[in-house]
Amino acid sequence: MTTATSTSYSKSHIVYTIAIIGFIYTLHMVVPMYSNSSFLSLFADERTLGYIYMAGAAVTVLAYLLAPSFIRKLGNYTLSLWLVIAQIAIFYGLIASDSSITIALLFILQSAVVSLIGLSLDIFLEKYTDHMHVGAIRGMYTATLNASWVIAPLLGTYIINGTENYRSTYVVAFAMLFPLLYLIYRNFPRFKDPTYRHLSPWQLVRHISHNHNWVKLFTANVILQIFYAWMTIYSPIYLNKTVGLGWESIGIILVIMLIPFPLIQYPLGKLADKKYGEKEMMAAGFVIMGLATIALAFINIPNVALWALALFITRIGAATAEIMMETYFFKTVSTSDTAALGIFRITRPISYIVAPILTAAGLLFMTHEYLYALIGIMTLLALIPVLR
What we know:
By secondary structure, the protein is mainly α. It has 16 helices and no strands. α6 packs antiparallel against α11 (about 260-275) and α12 (about 280-295) packs antiparallel against α13.
């Protein structure tokens, strides 16, 4: 085996390992995610629930801004281990505590910790990515992570089993953190951190703003993440409380809805590497997502097949837009640019600040079902930065 072949094999081996780690990480995060709002509603009303999500998002934004400093001081390997240990402690608290204030604070804190673990995995993957195959590697990684999104709702609803025993989902997620900790500890002790670029907040703003394509990409990504946040927080409650579907039916709908992510993202990433432009496919994704979401406003019957099909179509668009963003961004960013990577990921917590505000404002003028039309129109607005 030649040196080049050996290096290529070593890189592909570690990329697959990171994908497995990412799958476990995402599964632990998502198993309780769709019942989080229902669990928190046992301790807080709907308005307070929105404040908790917004506080979690604000703390996460702050964590992303501070992350480059922590990574430079501790190194990505050491920081990732401490983050997983912190997550273990937080989940133990969510399982054991009966204090509404403690649960709210722990939920807010875990929002930041879980996001930074994902950032650490991004840095590991970027280090070992062959930049001739960014689309294929990111497509494989994103599809693997999203496979856990398909499994988790069914697993979560099975664990809840039609009761209000939402805490059991945290027990399962807690158990997953120990293999996650071991795999990171075992595979990256010799990880060599690149020379991370140090930028002040003002320098970071200038660095991002000078790349006009990044600004447009980040704008479109904020819109995509608002769509995800709104669907995650409010759709399960809407399907249960307004439409009248049981949690077992909702679990089936969510599983079918999420199938496009592991199904199409890897082949689309490979296509982006070869000949098709990310921009055109990204625009097509937003069109599909926006029109299908508007259509949801006019479905008001508790039909599992109809809701599953409609939500499935929205996710065909979302999966397409998401993998094109990932491919384009990681083709243009370097491993040392953790600050830019952090800003790209900040779009997710920002969406959890905007989504409750958008919902509260929308409900002043319309009923719950027409919020889908509002979100769909907002999604179509992403075409403005994308097509430019």
